[in-house]
Amino acid sequence: MEIIVTSVFVQDQDKALKFYTETLGFEKKQDVPVGEFRWITLVSPNDPDGTELLLEPNNHPAAKEYQQKIFTDGIPATMFGVADVHKEYSRLMKHGVKFNMEPTEMGEVTVAVFDDTCGNLIQIMQK
Asked: Which domain of life does this protein belong to (predicted)?
């Protein structure tokens, strides 16, 4: 068994697609109409056949409430691995990304947390 798709709730699929591709650097893998929404998945350019990230609409009341509560409590919705947190932090800051936590060492890892502008906090981590 393997993880093939994971998702993150987003308030606006178009805005999320732009942020996750243009700012973060992911590549669009699928963009398929599904009723009033779309099945939009992204992949890492380093692993185009790897795990896909689904930009899931938060239109269901439970999804919206969950997203708002974890954001308010400062809990990241997901985590992405990076080779160098400090370098990625600097790159994203130049793109206007707002960080809630600057790069911080926590034992054997260094993490930082930013706002994805789509209702989520996202953590980046360097091992």
From this structure: Bacteria
